[in-house]
Specification:
Length: 412
């Protein structure tokens, strides 16, 4: 890996709040070694002229599912793990092509696919994994049909079972969390309310007892990890906050009181707006049921309101998409939906700085300060002026670097 100097660029370091001209970057060994307003001199470095383009950190999507390759999750029970992995490879390639150099998988991806990316066997973003999402029988991680009684599903021939687990009672929850830790997970995902893509649980259902949630949090914290919770309603969010959960996934129906409690506890919200619009527009053509689409309608209006509520309360909100299967091509539309209530720099922060905080990778990801990983984008236009630069599947991204390696480069 040779050293590289990037010059003739505008640097969109998120802490600046704007794209500033006159900077140069020295990258060596996959790390940003120097950031200077003066010419950088290095005998061994390759010099690349960025043509006045904007350079910014690679994007972070804090809620994805690389292994959920079908819009209708129960269909995955017919998908062998080999096929699911092949599909995941294509989905991950699409993500990094769109400029997402890091993603946080919240149910499905395991240490094997993470290692495949790390060693270069598969091309994709850095993966932070949750392994199997854990929920109670009949909850959001239990997509079985009512005629399915036996729960001992084979992982190798059932991709649905591979990404989800059911646990009931404190002892089972402890064991499930410990198993995810043993399997190398970066965070533990639990279900605390109903969901859109699960067939039988109402959105306002309350899943897991407080003792079960506390057990999950205790085990994750003991291992140096944390719990993220699928939760839509104020009741579910309040219970999660009270039990020590660190992040809330979705949170569309949050209210001022539950947001205030999140802020007091130093929690994060990972909002996902685009998935609800994409499901409303196109999910029926892949077989999503009318009941699921009805639940989708119940939460779609709360998405933008949740951003406003969290902004008032001081709850940091990360960028997430939660798209399933073929809908994942809509990933970059999330920027456009958020722009209805947030400023461009607030949205950039959500996809860089706040994402890095959630991953506990401050100073390494979501920034181009000295010492950070050399994950960066070279953009044809300034995203603070036009989020269209992120659209069309990465067409307007001139170059993408991950860990000092060029994934894409049309600068030369």
């Amino acid at each position: 890996m040779s050293a590289t100097i990037l010059r003739n660029l505008k640097l969109l370091e998120p802490s600046f709040g704007e794209a500033r001209p006159g900077y140069e970057l020295l990258i060596d060994g996959g790390i940003v070694r120097e950031v200077s307003e003066n010419p950088i001199v290095s005998r061994n470095a390759e010099v690349i002229d960025c043509g006045g383009r904007v350079v910014m950190p690679g994007l972070i999507d804090s809620h994805v599912h690389v292994m959920l390759s079908d819009v209708v999750i129960p269909n995955l029970e017919k998908v062998p793990l080999t096929l699911a992995t092949g599909r995941a490879a294509a989905l991950m390639l699409g993500m990094i092509n769109r400029g997402f150099t890091t993603v946080r998988d919240t149910g499905g991806a395991d240490w094997g696919i993470k290692q495949a990316v790390d060693e270069g066997s598969l091309t994709g973003p850095r993966l932070f994994i949750a392994g199997q999402a854990i929920g109670p029988t009949g909850g959001h991680s239990d997509p079985r049909r009512r005629t399915d009684v036996f729960s001992g599903r084979c992982h190798c021939c059932n991709a649905m079972a591979f990404g989800m687990a059911t646990s009931d009672g404190v002892s089972e929850v402890r064991k499930s969390v410990r198993e995810q830790m043993r399997q190398g997970c970066d965070q533990v995902k639990i279900m605390m309310s109903g969901g859109v893509a699960s067939p039988y649980d109402p959105l306002d259902s309350i899943q897991f007892s407080m003792d079960e949630v506390r057990a999950a949090v205790e085990e994750a914290n003991a291992f140096g990890r944390y719990v993220c919770a699928h939760a839509y309603t104020p009741t579910a969010i309040t219970r999660a906050a009270t039990a020590g959960v660190r992040t809330i996934e979705h949170g569309n129906l949050i209210d001022d009181a539950s947001a205030k409690l999140m802020a007091e506890n130093g929690m994060y919200l990972i909002a996902n707006l685009v998935t609800y619009y994409a499901m409303k527009e196109r999910a029926s053509q892949w077989g999503m049921s009318a009941d699921m689409l009805h639940k989708n309608d119940l939460v779609i209006d709360g998405g933008l309101k949740s951003l406003e509520i969290c902004k008032r309360a001081g709850v940091p909100v990360a960028f997430g998409t939660d798209l399933l299967g073929a809908l994942q091509v809509d990933q970059s539309r999330e920027f456009l939906f958020r722009s209805a209530v947030l400023s461009p720099i607030e949205i950039i922060h959500s996809a860089t700085t706040i994402g890095a905080e959630i991953l506990r990778m401050e100073g390494k990801l979501g920034t181009l300060k000295v010492g950070a990983y050399a994950d960066l984008l070279v953009l044809d236009r300034d995203p603070l002026e036009d989020f269209g630069v992120f659209q069309e599947q990465g067409k307007h991204i001139a170059a993408i670097m991950k860990g000092g390696w060029w994934h894409k480069n049309r600068l030369n």
